């Protein structure tokens, strides 16, 4: 088993990564827990609910199951309240433990519910998508969406542990795998050139979910994210580099309508655009841009941005008249493995966006 | 001006107590705040909204007003969402500051909204009831009610400062003053015998809201609560003593229906019952019990518990068959100024409750 330790002011906890962890979940439940609430959705529960339940039942503690509807569209207050209803109807107390079994949506909602129930109960992250395993389950960001904005309501709240069973990826749709791999290569791009090169070499093994390769990729991703988060738990500085490719990515997601492209797909494409921008403003070599494009394509993400029109792009990136006159801040990579957070001239941004409108081969 | 400094792991901040603080609110807004959201209700806003707004406007920062309906019945998710709506519609960012102007209901909801908006923005407590000034605004407990329980959803979240203007108490209904004074004498009972004696001597001045007396009482209450909270921010130990009288008090509130007696009134009466229990189990002298009863009556709180019937009392105190066979934990005072958290024999509790059913002169 591989263990990554996360150290933040808000808490210190292990991430366990291995095949078969699902059958050992009970080991991560603190001895003094009075009860366990297993929070999941029908998709994940049908696949892994029974194994998780059996493993948790081994603790001998009372186990309550709370089922939420599946999908980003339900990451809202109404669904969050279903968790509170379940916890209260079953009279769970402050010493209960919440287990979030699912992708990032379940993890974000489960974590936020845990942070708020009786002003905070312990929770265990059991991420079952690649994106959740390498990104959303690590670092303590939790929350829900509001009609006026994604992830607007939430808390920084660390779990007692993260349990990653690499086997569960076998049932994940291919697009979800590609989307998760986009965040994996993001870590290489912003902070670890050697890891990026390793991903290039092992891209076929990664896409095939080869056990050894995917385990290492998850472990290294968690280590790198944990490092960044330990430096800046509450996103006042360094943590911003984790948003590499995300300004473009978010514009794609909302420009096409959420759900059209997966978040990771949009980020993949957005990283290519951010690399192009880095070439114009920060000295990234043309060869490096090409490596970013090639690996993004190889993991199965789109690399050609949708043609939204430059004006719409700028609007979606919230470059309004005012900031456009000034400058906009982006995460850029002067070279692969190094990130900076800098303002760029609107002109440079326009050149990248005009590119998006060109027919590409 | 009197200042009490609160030190907790979650933050360190001043409580300013003085006549006229309302006109100086701008001084507590951090320089780097991008905007201010003033959260209040129609009752309080009609009385003090303009003065608060003018003081905040002096910062030159954008000021947004968010009005919530008045009353404990609205301390719920729907109302909380009105705050999020207002913050998002006005595009307030992570560097905005929320100002909660009102009693404990506004403070609890404003604080919880601040803790969750974009995973945490800064907030300023401006408590306008005596109860909020001596209790709810200090210590960082925030939250809302759930249909299945009061204060079930929330966060520990400390403000950047607490601004207490003693003048605003002038418009407070007399019953609210009495209810606040109950929490004041509670601090004396659990932790400071000298302060309890001081309250006995100055009870008329306190009821009349004499400026010097009430300022000192607020200051001392804040100091004592700050001390307890600094030892135990998240209520894992010592903080429990703040619940002296509250097990009985909560039973009264829910037994009569919330709102029938004010919380502080129920706590006042509950402290008399807790003193009686302390006499039976923990050696509190009969003379001390009498002092508790006399002062509680003198501040204007009821001292005769409602006749709910012993069985209903036990049910309301959640003494079910199981715990009744065992023992129930209470905050008790072996003498005035000292609290312990101990289990008591069901028999002793029954004796106190049977008392409640007796006709009293
Ligand atoms: N907290 C953070 O730091 C952070 C970081 C990145 C993303 N996020 C959030 O994560 C969410 C996206 O997470 P996601 O990509 O995991 O989406 P998701 O949770 O919606 O999961 C995607 C789909 O896969 C299904 N699924 C999950 N595990 C499966 C498995 N093993 N086999 C088959 N199907 C499975 C889910 O039921 C769902 O239908 C977004 O809401 C985003 O805001 C949070
Ligand atoms: N967070 C904590 O640690 C803590 C501690 C104790 C109580 N509480 C909470 O506090 C709440 C009770 O607070 P409360 O007693 O202040 O009730 P409240 O906020 O409902 O205020 C009582 C009434 O007085 C009005 N009011 C406020 N200031 C006024 C003024 N200066 N003049 C005239 N009217 C005024 C209010 O609008 C309201 O109608 C409860 O919800 C309770 O759960 C929290
Ligand atoms: Zn992402
Ligand atoms: Zn109280």
Automatic annotation (TrEMBL), chains A, B:
Enzyme class per UniProt: lyase
Residues where Zn(2+) binds: 183, 246, 263
EC number in record: 4.2.3.4
Cofactor(s) of this protein: Co(2+); Zn(2+); NAD(+)
Sequence ranges assigned to domain 3-dehydroquinate synthase C-terminal in this UniProt record: 180-323
Residue ranges constituting the 3-dehydroquinate synthase N-terminal domain according to the UniProt record: 66-178
Keywords from the named record: Amino-acid biosynthesis, Aromatic amino acid biosynthesis, Cobalt, Cytoplasm, Lyase, Metal-binding, NAD, Nucleotide-binding, Zinc
Localisation per UniProt entry: Cytoplasm
Domain of life from the UniProt record: Bacteria
InterPro entries attached to this UniProt entry: Dehydroquinate_synthase, DHQ_synth_AroB, DHQ_synth_fam, DHQS/DOIS_N, DHQS_C
Pathway field: Metabolic intermediate biosynthesis; chorismate biosynthesis; chorismate from D-erythrose 4-phosphate and phosphoenolpyruvate: step 2/7
Chief localization: cytoplasm
Xref: SUPFAM superfamilies: Dehydroquinate synthase-like
GO biological process: amino acid biosynthetic process; aromatic amino acid family biosynthetic process; chorismate biosynthetic process
Catalyzed reaction equations: 7-phospho-2-dehydro-3-deoxy-D-arabino-heptonate = 3-dehydroquinate + phosphate
Cofactor note: Binds 1 divalent metal cation per subunit. Can use either Co(2+) or Zn(2+).
GO cellular component: cytoplasm
Gene Ontology MF: a single term: 3-dehydroquinate synthase activity
PANTHER family with a match to the protein in the record: 3-DEHYDROQUINATE SYNTHASE, 3-DEHYDROQUINATE SYNTHASE, CHLOROPLASTIC
Family that this chain belongs to: Belongs to the sugar phosphate cyclases superfamily. Dehydroquinate synthase family.
Its job: Catalyzes the conversion of 3-deoxy-D-arabino-heptulosonate 7-phosphate (DAHP) to dehydroquinate (DHQ).
Name of the protein in its database record: 3-dehydroquinate synthase
Naturally occurring in which organism (per UniProt): Pollutimonas nitritireducens
């Amino acid at each position: 088993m591989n263990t990554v330790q996360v150290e933040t002011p808000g808490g210190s906890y292990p991430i366990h990564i291995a095949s078969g962890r699902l059958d050992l979940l009970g080991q991560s439940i603190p001895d003094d827990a009075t009860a366990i609430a297993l929070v999941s959705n029908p998709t994940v529960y049908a696949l892994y609910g029974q194994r998780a339940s059996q493993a948790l039942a081994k603790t001998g503690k009372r186990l309550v199951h709370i089922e939420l509807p599946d999908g980003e569209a339900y990451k809202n207050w109404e669904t969050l309240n279903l968790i509170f209803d379940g916890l209260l109807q079953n009279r769970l107390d402050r010493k209960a433990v919440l287990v979030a079994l699912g992708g990032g949506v379940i993890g974000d909602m489960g974590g936020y519910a845990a942070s708020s129930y009786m002003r905070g109960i312990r929770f265990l992250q059991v991420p079952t998508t690649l994106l959740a395993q390498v990104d959303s389950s690590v670092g303590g960001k939790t929350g829900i969406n509001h009609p006026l904005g994604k992830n607007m309501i939430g808390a920084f709240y660390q779990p007692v542990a993260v349990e990653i069973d690499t086997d569960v990826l076998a049932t994940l749709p291919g697009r979800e795998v590609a989307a998760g791999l986009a965040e994996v290569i993001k870590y290489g791009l912003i902070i670890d050139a050697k890891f990026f090169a390793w991903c290039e070499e092992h891209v076929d093994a990664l896409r095939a979910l080869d056990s050894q390769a995917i385990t290492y990729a998850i472990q290294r991703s968690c280590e790198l994210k944990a490092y960044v988060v330990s430096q800046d738990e509450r996103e006042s500085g360094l943590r911003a580099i984790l948003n590499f490719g995300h300004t473009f990515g978010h514009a794609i997601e909302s420009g096409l309508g959420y759900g059209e492209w997966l978040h990771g797909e949009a980020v993949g494409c957005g990283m290519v655009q951010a690399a192009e921008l880095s070439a114009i403003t920060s000295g990234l070599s043309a060869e490096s841009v090409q490596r970013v494009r090639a690996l993004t394509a190889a993991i199965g993400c789109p690399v050609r941005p949708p043609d939204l029109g430059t004006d719409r792009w700028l609007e979606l990136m919230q470059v309004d008249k005012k900031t456009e006159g000034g400058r906009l801040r982006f995460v850029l990579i002067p070279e692969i493995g190094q990130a900076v957070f800098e303002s760029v001239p609107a002109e440079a941004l326009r050149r990248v966006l005009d590119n998006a409108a060109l027919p590409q081969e």
